[in-house]
Specification:
alpha+beta; three-stranded mixed β-sheet; two-stranded antiparallel ribbon; 12% strand
Amino acid sequence: MQNDMEEFAERIESFYADPLIPLSKQFMFRRPPTFGELQSPPQVLLLGNHSSGKSTFINYLLGTETQRTGVAPTDDGFTIITNGPVATELDGHAVVSNPNLPYEGLQYFGDALVSHIRLKLRPAELLHSVVRWWQRTAWRATHNRSVKVGRCSAKYSRKSDAC
């Protein structure tokens, strides 16, 4: 399975050559994703004003009290929530320095960001199912099977302007 994931990450990395690298140069964003980032399951960024229901929404989806909730702001950082066998929390420095996690690239943004990062591993079924889906998708992609990427199949996305 590890070789399949590495091959899949290499295929994703090849997508950056055209058109993403020229865009990153135009907007002076110089860091392409790391190999670890390319191997990780997809991530969702949830943003909103304080007390707008973000933590309540996450708690509802996971079926547990993962995030603190309240009327006043309860958090001033970025929390990464992912699947893990046991409920565990790591601070930002432990997260970006861990070679088994795909977040080493965040250290390039400096201590001001890293000190506001927290990782929560949770044994939630929803998170586990996302990881299983990602592993199946990566396997199919490395074995030249059709994989949906947005509206297009990964097999044809390089050739289509619509993707």
